[in-house]
Amino acid sequence: MPEQLFPLLAPIAALLVVGPRGLWRVSRTVVTIAHEGGHALVAVLTGRRLSGIRLHSDTSGVTVSVGRPSGPGMVFTALAGYLAPSLLGVGAAGLVTLGWTRPLLWLAVALLVITLLYVRNWFGGLAVVLTGALVGVVAWYGSPPAQHAFCAVVAWFLLFGGLRAVHELGRGRRWQVRRRDYPLDSDADQLARLTGLPPGLWVGLFALIGLGAVALGGWWLVGDLVIELAQRAGVPGLP
Fold first, then answer.
1. Does the first or last residue of the chain, that is N or C, have fewer Cβ atoms within 10 Å of its Cβ?
2. Would the CA dihedral through 207, 212, 215, 217 be positive or negative?
3. Dist CA 223 CA 220 (whole Å)
4. What tens digit of pLDDT does each residue of 82-117 get?
5. Which residues on adjacent β-strands are paired with residue 66?
6. What is the end-to-end Cα distance of the chain in Å, rounded?
């Protein structure tokens, strides 16, 4: 297969990790790390005091911060979780497109080390250490082509994984409502209590931003190749 087609393999590889239920049950922990990291970062940026992060073996997590129980700081903190994987995926896609894969890898290692400082349970610590070790090995020993391929797959994984997590949020909420399993305590429900806006609106916002992230990040990663292939195929209307 021609080398220029390699970028098309990255989204396929990411889907093979995100799609099957068995692999997703393992890889979703990485999405949870990004999710809780988003809560933690925005909590600090909005002036809240970060108490700790816990990651659980069922791929759930919780971030505890101290501050006003309402107001913009709390709203943005609650909003950040489901947006973080998708936005990180877009950022990773942009850096891959620019060729800054090695800085991207070391930035990821640095963020994981900072996250580890706030993790308060052994499973969470193990998950962050293993994730950081994998990224660190690629950053230290990987060849430039290997680093580029790895970063491209990670970018797609975050884009697809963030969107699947939002899908699971919506499905889980519907299941809880049908079972009358109250109180509902998802991020969307917390945002509803904080703002008075319905939780479905927040789930929809998460999904819309996730889809936009896939579109933008995907275009950065494969757009030029798609145009080139279309030109070679003689698709009308292209320069």
1. C
2. negative
3. 6
4. 999 999 999 999 999 999 999 999 999 999 999 999
5. 49
6. 26
What token pair was written down for 226?
């798609």
Taking Cα atoms as reference points, which of 163, 157, 211, 167 lies closest to residue 11? 157
- Average pLDDT (166-186) is 83
* Residue 124: band (very low, low, confident or very high) from pLDDT cuts 50, 70, 90: very high
Write b or e for each residue in 9-34: b if 16 or more Cβ atoms lie within 10 A of its Cβ, otherwise e.
Answer: ebbeebeebbeeeeebeebbbbbbbb
Contact 188, 199 (CB under 8 A): yes
The pLDDT of residue 144 is: 93
For residues 156 and 10, the answer to whether their CB atoms sit within 8 Å is yes
Nearest CA to 153 among 169, 180, 134, 173? 134
Is the CB of residue 121 less than 8 Å from the CB of residue 54?
yes
